[in-house]
Design goal:
362 residues; 13 helices; 8 strands; hpI Integrase, Chain A; 3-stranded antiparallel β-sheet; Double Stranded RNA Binding Domain
Length: 362
């Protein structure tokens, strides 16, 4: 069977009882094999003068490579054949980097430059999968990862969180395939956990919000006590309280508040702008500031040492990647369970709905 192997065509491929091949009509030697399991794999077929036989070199699966990426790889293989280079032998001689080296030298710089949450993604992989940091990419196996997952589940980590951890690792390894560092995905058979999150809508009730605000005040008082000899009392001693209260009053996402800059706030018109580069949708939006939100930003601005950059810079001066530790501690003090930082956005949305505003906040 022959066809132009592209995105549209791949979506129409039907699984049959037996494996079958589809050869590309444009690029000779490029093909896919469709297996009864539903797996679709790209190959490149070429003639090897060394043994006077045709050889197929595995490129990858449709799960991790687009047809265009696989086609480019097939062109590289066929170009090597024309040059007299044996692609099969060339693949054997490539030194496969360890995960740690790949993250530091290749993937880290790329993801930090090309993804909004690249820095957070990189930290997540290093923090979660340090136990395979020294393992070459092609030798990372499913077994140790599944064992790690089991231990995390026993320690109370949710399946949703584990899925996020696994997804960033699998995405990094998929990039290694795209860059021809490895030929197959070592975790292709590792499945994510089934999690039903469609019906989860969590927001603070009035009593929980009161406890949260009280816990934030208590945290401020404790910081004040620790710093009373070094810091004169101002509106806020720490970033967490204004961050949380601002989210409650504007519905900002965590990443949006981390990247918020003073130039994005129009104090005269009492409007905050989420610029397109920081918005999940890629579209800028303008948020009116209510009385509390305006007061929070005004007081925080008055005590800021630098009003030319981030509204909430970390100690290093860069944008925060996470406030997980301080946030979890606040929830414990407030005795609030099963509540995520993103649920502050849900709380804001619920107040809008109760006020008669029908907006699709998620």
């Amino acid at each position: 069977m022959q066809a132009k192997i592209g995105n549209s065509f791949v979506k129409t491929i039907k699984v049959q009882e037996k494996s079958y091949e589809i050869w590309d009509s444009d690029l000779k030697g490029f093909l896919v094999v469709v297996y009864p399991s539903g797996k679709i794999t790209y190959y490149c077929s070429f003639y090897r003068p060394q043994n006077k036989k045709r050889t197929r070199l595995l490129i990858g699966t449709t799960e991790f490579l687009t047809p265009a990426q696989a086609r480019d790889r097939a062109k590289e293989i066929l170009a090597d054949v024309i040059k007299g280079v044996d692609p099969a032998e060339k693949t054997k001689t490539i030194t496969i980097p360890a995960l740690e080296d790949f993250l530091n030298n290749e993937y880290g710089p790329w993801v930090s430059e090309n993804r909004k949450s690249g820095g957070m993604t990189l930290k997540r992989i290093k923090f979660c999968f340090g136990f395979v940091a020294k393992v070459p990419l092609n030798e990372i196996t499913v077994g140790p990862i599944e064992k790690w997952c089991s231990e995390r589940l026993k320690n109370g980590i949710s399946k949703l969180t584990l899925n996020r951890d696994l997804t960033v690792l699998k995405a990094a390894l998929a990039k290694a395939i795209e860059w021809n560092i490895i030929q197959t995905h070592p975790l292709a058979k590792l499945k994510l956990f089934r999690v039903d999150v469609k019906n989860r809508i969590r927001y603070l009730n009035d009593d929980e919000e009161k406890r949260l605000r009280k816990a934030l005040e208590q945290r401020e008082a404790e910081i004040n006590e620790l710093r009373k000899k070094q810091l004169k009392r101002e509106s806020y001693f720490d970033h967490l309280k204004p961050m949380v209260l601002l989210c409650l009053n504007t519905g900002l996402r965590r990443g949006e508040i981390f990247k918020l800059r003073f130039v994005d706030i129009n104090f005269s018109q009492k409007v905050l702008t989420v610029i397109s580069q920081n918005a999940k949708s890629g579209l800028a939006r303008h948020i009116p500031l209510n009385k509390e939100a305006y007061s929070i930003l005004s007081e925080w601005c008055d005590q800021a040492n630098d009003r030319s950059g981030l509204v909430f810079p970390s100690e290093t001066g860069n944008a925060f990647c996470t406030v997980k530790t301080s946030w979890n501690n606040i929830l414990k003090v407030a005795q609030i369970e099963n509540f995520h930082f993103h649920d502050l956005r849900h709380t804001f949305a619920s107040k809008l709905v109760m006020a008669g505003v029908d907006l699709p906040y998620k």
